[in-house]
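Please review this one:
***
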Amino acid sequence: MKTVGIIGAGASGMMAAITAARAGAAVLLIEHRPQIGKKILSTGNGRCNFTNTFQDPSCYRSDNPDFAKTILSQFTSQDAIAFFLKLGIYSKNRNGYIYPYSDQASAVLEVLQQELERLQVTILTETETRSVSCGKKGFSIQTGHEILHCDRLILAAGGKAASVTGSDGSGYDLAKQLDHHLVPVLPSLVQLHCAETCYKQLAGIRVQGSVAILVDGIIQGQDTGEIQLTKYGISGIPVFQVSRFAARGLYERKKVEAVLDFMPDFSDEGLTAFLGVRIKNQPEKTMKHFFTGLYHPKLAGTFLRLCRIPETKRACELTGVEIASLTEKIKHFCTVITKTNPFENAQVCAGGVDTVEINAETMESNIVPGLFFAGELVDVDGICGGYNLQWAWSSGYVAGREAAK
């Protein structure tokens, strides 16, 4: 019987433990926090969006974009739904976003814990892993209290994001101890800081729009949805979705900009025509009230100030140049990104163990036989919507299955 040691009892670590134990391995699951799976409790705002039925390679990011596809095909979103159904979690579908029927993340964690107990997985909590090494007889794990041994080792210790849930980045050091290299680890699914001062007065405004990240003038990513304006910059789901590109550009000391489109349903020409009709319908209305029903007064006032249009000016007095200027500001609001919020505000990390050093069929190290990886520790991160948990389930399943062989 193989002994499989797993460092990290988050989503991927628990899935790896369950899969390996079901395959007949003796499993030791090591967690440095008092509670296993704590990060699961905060997913989906406490409701646990545990997968998504829409799966596309573009939903996962990595320096090696093809890597995740092979692993995800071995344990799909439908497999995840079936897996949890067998554990007692009946799910519901909200436009492809899959949640437990109870809308309780705690239920997902509870059934995982129950399955670990049923399979008699040995769980060590409040156990810090200080170092790992590989020898002829397998792996040695140095904790704060003892040296543990196992035939196969799975590193599933997570990243550095959301440290309040227990993620501290220690897994990266363990990977490096075993001669692996890292793609730069950076915050992702995170808020962005902007250089302009106008955001202080726009804080709290939510507006539909799209955001594109440009690095040295080249578009790296784009998304549409509800943008949140904060006292320091921009937030909201579409900002989160493209934030990894900003983080990487800043890390590489390149010029990073966001271009906000506050009327994405219109082309430039369409918006100009729309404004023309609005002027025709409300010729005597002052510009202070011209955008009522379209934008928050503070945001509308910002457009006017940047276009140098007085609030007292009547709509019928606008020149063609001023209308074109308004179209430009509404459709192409360019802002300079200075930094991301720190890891504690990020939902996940971009970067991690370089996938070039990992077998894309098995999650086994190409450097150290018998060493496997799972979850956020690897250079794969998903967009919002259940994709990071799906990566955890898929990579944990494959790593656990292969480690037990």
